[in-house]
Write a sequence for this structure.
């Protein structure tokens, strides 16, 4: 870096009132670039900086893509690709060497940041519109440190649809019962009478009749036959034949 650049940066340090030298890193722009009111190209333009303008870097986002700078009376955010910093005898882009240089990491709180620097700007009244835009990494919710305002309520995430469980009808298990038979009816019978069947041979004593069972209504009789009456004739002599 030549002497004119060094003198320019040294004089720029005195042009930033209220900024401590321990909190800033003097750099310069490498192209005509727009100073914006936030770390994105969609934010309103604060000022137009020319190539070689001195800026005091206050800090950068975590990925060193955008840096918070002070350029004269203006405060805003610059694309880190267009910010150069003298480092080890060379000029390096902040987007690649910001961590090596030691530039601190800051976050962007749109509510407090705009309240501190842009109250007199015409687009300050559009703060609610810019507060609901998609935010980058390192950008916090608005009104975090602004007095008199409450932080917005967190987004309500819809609950997952309730799963309807249909009731399954369970049929009762049939009870298997043993086969039931009707009880048997016992018909009373008359007792059998003892007697002697007629025409039956009586063994043993001649007086002992043979007991027989007779049908009801019949009277028993005793039949006594003399022993030896069967084949009472003379037995033929087989020797004569």
């Amino acid at each position: 870096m030549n002497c004119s650049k060094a003198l320019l940066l040294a004089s720029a340090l005195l042009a930033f009132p209220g900024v401590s030298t321990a909190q800033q890193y003097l750099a310069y722009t490498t192209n005509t670039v727009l100073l914006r009111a936030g770390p994105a190209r969609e934010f309103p333009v604060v000022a137009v900086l020319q190539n070689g303008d001195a800026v005091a870097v206050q800090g950068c986002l975590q990925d060193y893509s955008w840096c918070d700078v002070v350029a004269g009376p203006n405060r805003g955010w610059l694309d880190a690709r267009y910010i150069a910093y003298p480092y080890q005898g060379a000029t390096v882009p902040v987007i690649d060497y910001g961590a090596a240089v030691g530039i601190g990491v800051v976050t962007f709180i749109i509510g407090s940041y705009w309240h501190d620097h842009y109250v007199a700007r015409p687009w300050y009244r559009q703060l609610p519109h810019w507060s609901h835009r998609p935010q980058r990494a390192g950008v916090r919710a608005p009104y975090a440190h602004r007095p008199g305002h409450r932080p917005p309520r967190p987004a309500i995430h819809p609950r997952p649809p309730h799963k309807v469980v249909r009731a399954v009808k369970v049929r009762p298990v049939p009870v298997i019962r043993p086969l039931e038979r009707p009880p048997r009816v016992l018909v009373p019978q008359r007792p059998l009478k003892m007697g002697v069947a007629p025409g039956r041979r009586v063994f043993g004593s001649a007086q002992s009749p043979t007991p027989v069972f007779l049908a009801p209504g019949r009277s028993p009789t005793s039949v006594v036959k003399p022993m030896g009456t069967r084949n009472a004739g003379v037995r033929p002599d087989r020797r004569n034949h």
Q: What stands out?
A: The helical segments are 3-14, 94-101, 110-117, 127-131. The chain is about 15% helix and 20% strand. Confidence is low (pLDDT under 50) at residues 1-22, 140-149, 202-206.
